[in-house]
Amino acid sequence: MEIFVGYGNYTIALATMIGIYSIMALGLNIQWGLTGLFNLGIAGFFAVGAYASAILTTSETPKHIGGFDLPVVLAWPLAMIAAAFIAWAVARICIRLRADYLAIATIGIGEILRLIFKNEQWATGGTRGISNISRPFEQLPGIWAPLAFLGVVLILAMVAYWLAERGRTSPWGRVVQAIRDNEPAARAAGKNVETFRIQGFVIGSAFMGLAGALTAHYFKFVGPEATDPLQVTFLVWVMLIVGGNGSNRGAMLGAAVIWTMWSASELFSSRLSGDWAHRAPFVRLFLVGLILQIMLQYFPDGLMPRQRQITARLPRKPTIDQPQSSHILPPF
Amino acid sequence: MDQLLVFINAYLVPGIVSGSIYALGAIGLTLLFGVLRFTHFAHGDVMTAGAYFALTAIGLFGLHPVLALPIAMVCTSALCLCINHFFYRPLMRRPSLVLTISSFGIALMIRASIQLLYGVESHYYVRGIQRSTDFLGTFRIVDRHIWIVCCAIVLMVALHLLLTYTRLGKAMRAVSDSPELARLTGISTLAIVKATWVIGGSLAAVAGVFLGWDGFIQANMGWDLLLPMSAAAILGGLGRPYGAMVGGLVIGLAEELSSYPWFGGDALLSPGYKTGVAFTIMVAMLIWRPNGLFGGRVQ
């Protein structure tokens, strides 16, 4: 009986993290998959969401600013807005530059945010971070508490998926994909490229902020070094590339596959003894890197390639037209 | 006088030293960008690899860090060529951002390998108090700082001579200016790409060894330098090696001087935010002069 509870708890924890990472992968898919924006500061937006929600929901304490005691229903949307606001500020400056510059700038913003969270002790508790964050439904007995939280995460992940999918198939989604594929053409069609890019970046970052808020409440703690920021960013990227860049379902599948592997290898490595137990995490990171390289080289579309319905729906031109048209003189 | 002494010993000299290190790294970044048209996100970790190669050499043969430089340069160049052959070359025909993603993955793979082989703790090339030399009876400059700055100057002059007077250097500049035209004139792009990896990798190795010599050697030291190095490369204009030299020096000095108490007793900027300086300069550049101080090759 004991062992079943253990496995049950493990499965619930696994599913909860998959839900949270799916939301981030969906956010990155909006930024990179649809809009073609390179974001290497995922962990930064994630942390903004986490800290915002933590500060808003905790009660008065001398360790950091707080005492707002807001319910999560209010704090989570505010956390998304906080992440979106930071993203908007970054995007305003960097969005019209080369994609490489945006990538470097997002690394920079992630680093600055980490420094702020670490150094501004009055606001964020410094290196000790913020603890005693409440988790919704934690008062429920036994296994029901994590199960109920898992339910919340999964519902939010489904809502995020629905929103991302609606966005992708909407006119807005077609415009951002057109910008990604051929910017001059989209510009010539009268689309304001900068505005659409900023929108894509901000919406994706809001998703990352929500994931951060969920993680803070799930772990009941947030700190500047709680998770290796680079590792979070890297994992989300691998999830999207493995799942299928540009496909929302692929992003979720990638999150499930990569997190299961990541987490299962931890289960395996904890059985190892002595020196190798310390080294196993690095082997794991190396292997995930290798998976990324293999996917990039051999399966660039990922496990679930994006649906190319926009072009597929167009009626096919009869090929016989083409030689004829070449004889017609141009109209000028 | 006392004030001036503190300024020079604790702010100006460290600024020049870290500026030289940034410059060496930024030159590699900018050369690679010129030839391959992508930002090599693993450049910082290539530096780390160089530092660890030197650490191994010093541990095995008990060399002086400067004598370990050639070994680190050769090993790092070989590493770069391998990475290029197995991971970047198959992606050459794809959009350059795919290469950027790949290099981000490579950065973590290099770091993971180092952590696997050497662990996460800090290492040192030389232990104990360092010898220092007196100048004009008042300035005390640590010997390694003199070594670092002199070696950096020698390498930069060598690079200048290579780029200006040799066939290889001219071919590299030609490919950087216009890959198509260079290919039409019969320059082998593949050979140039390899040469660029060797030069960029060697300079990164030197930068890594100096960085480790000046402080300590740790697995994530290179990644932390990616931001100031990119800032230096952007400041000088991507694709311009001379710009990167100036950019590196400017960023290094700005970082150190920003925490000097210019007004009254407090530091102008808390040293905890030192890394932010490079970023602020970079963002300011991106807003007002996105092509860099001297005009970059690519917009």
TrEMBL record, chain A:
The entry's localization annotation reads: Cell membrane
The UniProt entry, under InterPro entries, shows: ABC_transp_permease (IPR001851), LivM-like (IPR043428)
Q: Does the keyword Membrane apply?
A: yes
Pfam families given in the database record: BPD_transp_2 (PF02653)
Molecular-function annotations in GO: branched-chain amino acid transmembrane transporter activity
Domain of life from the UniProt record: Bacteria
Q: Which residues cross the membrane?
A: 12-30, 37-56, 68-89, 101-117, 143-164, 201-219, 234-262, 282-299
Q: Which GO terms of the cellular component aspect does the record hold?
A: plasma membrane
First-listed, main subcellular location of the protein, grouped into a coarse class: membrane
How does the UniProt record describe the way this protein sits in the membrane? Multi-pass membrane protein
Keyword field: Cell membrane, Membrane, Transmembrane, Transmembrane helix
Recorded protein name is Branched-chain amino acid transport system permease protein
Query: What species is this protein from?
Result: Mesorhizobium qingshengii
UniProtKB/TrEMBL annotation, chain B:
Q: Name one GO cellular component term.
A: plasma membrane
Give the matching Pfam families.
Answer: BPD_transp_2
The membrane topology term of the UniProt record is: Multi-pass membrane protein
Domain of life where this protein originates: Bacteria
User: Which UniProt keywords are given for this protein, alphabetically ordered?
Assistant: Amino-acid transport, Cell inner membrane, Cell membrane, Membrane, Transmembrane, Transmembrane helix, Transport
Q: Read off the InterPro entries from this record.
A: ABC_transp_permease, BCAA_transport_permease
Q: Which residues cross the membrane?
A: 12-34, 46-63, 69-88, 97-118, 145-163, 184-211, 231-254, 266-288
- GO terms classed as biological process: D-alanine transmembrane transport; L-alanine transport; L-isoleucine import across plasma membrane
**Where's it found, cell-wise?**
Cell membrane
The molecular function GO annotations come to: L-isoleucine transmembrane transporter activity; L-leucine transmembrane transporter activity; L-phenylalanine transmembrane transporter activity; L-valine transmembrane transporter activity
Q: Which family does it belong to?
A: Belongs to the binding-protein-dependent transport system permease family. LivHM subfamily.
Q: Write down what this protein is called.
A: Branched-chain amino acid transport system permease protein
Organism name: Mesorhizobium qingshengii
